[in-house]
């Protein structure tokens, strides 16, 4: 019996000749985008009724929406753009334009650090996928405005963009004066992009400064991450704690995901080798962790309820008889690893790509991908917002869908 030959996603040099191989076809990607097109058409109609941006569902299964000032506002239009790019659906495109333009006021969002999430996931994707020069130029102006707004939270003496305003930690005695969270790495791509289109290096320089100090202070010796690092007025790290993880010394799964993604992206933008090595080390911690389930969808925290990890909170009141998974963390990691595979070679590159592909296939299966008209109209089930805040536990989340669709897009476009 003849065996089918698997054609690798690699090039091979033989006797001075470079052979280009054809990518392996992955039919689950096409199927997933077709299902996403139908589900998001449904979600857009539901969002229209409430006239605001879909974020999650409540305990009754009803759609929860939020305003343009929330950090999650850009994910819904961003997801619509990914779907439009792969399906060409004009209805989806019109919804993407409408919901993107509904975010314009958020170009002035300076109450927290998340303007990059809000504006680049929406307007950034619109610029990439919309073939309308007039609109694209207008969108670029809005992105430039947003980048200047982001810099309002940057203190050159500290060298970082401040994530939140003054805030108390869970220990009840520590007040963070200049808190920086690992999530903040995801806002840096917008700054790099604006330096590209304006020719002004100040935006990229801020991004590099922020990433460099995050690299120095957010990682433990085993390459796991702290969620929150608080700085004094001179830029010295004075507290390392958590806000959404289990304990100060535990590893919050989505925090580790943000680190993998953020440093992969910063290497792509700067080609600084130290950012690549940081991304690889963070990925190794995640991919090889003994507590990562076989299906590669992590628990919300790698160390939840484990000996040696003491939380400042008593989670007993939640009455959970299981440790929730976080599909959003899995989606972020999968998208990042597709990119990371392109910056590495050989066995290392294949390990990242295979991990990403396996994760995306799992998320595309019935255990995590919702049936049409269910799950509030979102794609993925089983994500976690913040268990310490008793918020969004085992529900769909707009950003889980966004990074899932981004991961599928990146995987489908590999050459």
TrEMBL record:
Keywords on this record?
Hydrolase
Hydrolase listed as a keyword: yes
Please give the SUPFAM superfamilies that the UniProt record associates with this protein.
Six-hairpin glycosidases
Q: Which Gene3D superfamilies match?
A: 1.50.10.10
One GO molecular-function entry = hydrolase activity
Q: Which residues form a coiled coil?
A: none
InterPro entries with a match to the protein in the record: 6-hairpin_glycosidase_sf, 6hp_glycosidase-like_sf, Glyco_hydro_88, UG_Glycosaminoglycan_Hydrolase
What's the superkingdom here? Answer: Bacteria
Task: Please give the PANTHER family that the UniProt record associates with this protein.
Answer: HYDROLASE, PUTATIVE (AFU_ORTHOLOGUE AFUA_7G05090)-RELATED
Q: Which family does it belong to?
A: Belongs to the glycosyl hydrolase 88 family.
Q: What is this protein called?
A: Glycoside hydrolase family 88 protein
Taxonomy of the source species? Bacteria, Pseudomonadati, Bacteroidota, Sphingobacteriia, Sphingobacteriales
């Amino acid at each position: 019996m003849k065996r089918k030959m698997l054609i690798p996603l690699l090039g091979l040099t033989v006797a001075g000749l470079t052979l280009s191989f054809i990518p392996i076809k992955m039919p689950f990607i096409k199927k997933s985008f077709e299902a996403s097109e139908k589900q998001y058409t449904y979600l857009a109609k539901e969002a229209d009724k409430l006239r605001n941006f879909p974020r999650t569902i409540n305990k009754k299964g009803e759609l929860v929406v939020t305003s343009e000032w929330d950090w999650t506002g850009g994910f819904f239009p961003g997801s619509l753009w990914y779907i439009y790019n792969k399906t060409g659906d004009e209805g989806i495109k019109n919804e993407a334009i409408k919901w993107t333009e509904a975010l314009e006021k958020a170009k002035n969002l300076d109450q927290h650090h998340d303007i990059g999430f809000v504006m680049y996931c929406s307007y950034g994707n619109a610029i990439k996928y919309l073939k309308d020069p007039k609109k694209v130029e207008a969108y670029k102006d809005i992105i430039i405005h947003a980048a200047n707004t982001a810099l309002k939270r940057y203190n050159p003496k500290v060298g970082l963009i401040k994530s939140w305003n003054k805030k108390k930690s869970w220990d009840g005695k520590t007040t963070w004066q200049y808190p920086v969270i690992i999530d903040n790495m995801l806002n840096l791509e917008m700054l790099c992009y604006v330096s590209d289109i304006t020719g002004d290096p100040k935006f990229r320089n801020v991004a590099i400064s922020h990433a460099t100090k995050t690299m120095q202070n957010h990682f433990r010796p085993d390459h796991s991450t702290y969620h929150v690092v608080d700085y004094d007025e001179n830029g010295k790290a004075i507290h390392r704690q958590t806000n959404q993880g289990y304990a100060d010394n535990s590893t919050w799964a989505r925090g580790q995901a943000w680190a993998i993604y953020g440093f992969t992206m910063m290497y792509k933008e700067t080609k600084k080798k130290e950012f690549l090595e940081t991304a690889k080390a963070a990925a190794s911690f995640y991919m090889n962790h003994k507590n990562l389930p076989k299906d590669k969808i992590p628990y919300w925290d790698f160390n939840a309820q484990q000996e040696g990890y003491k939380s400042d909170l008593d989670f007993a009141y939640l009455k959970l008889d299981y440790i929730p998974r976080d599909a959003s963390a899995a989606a972020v990691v999968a998208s990042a690893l597709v990119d990371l595979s392109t910056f590495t070679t050989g066995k290392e590159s294949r390990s990242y790509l295979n991990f990403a592909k396996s994760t995306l296939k799992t998320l595309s299966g019935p255990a995590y991908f919702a049936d049409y008209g269910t799950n509030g109209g979102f794609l993925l089930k089983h994500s976690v917002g913040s268990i310490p805040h008793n918020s969004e536990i085992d529900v769909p989340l707009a950003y889980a869908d966004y990074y899932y669709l981004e991961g599928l897009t990146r995987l489908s476009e590999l050459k």
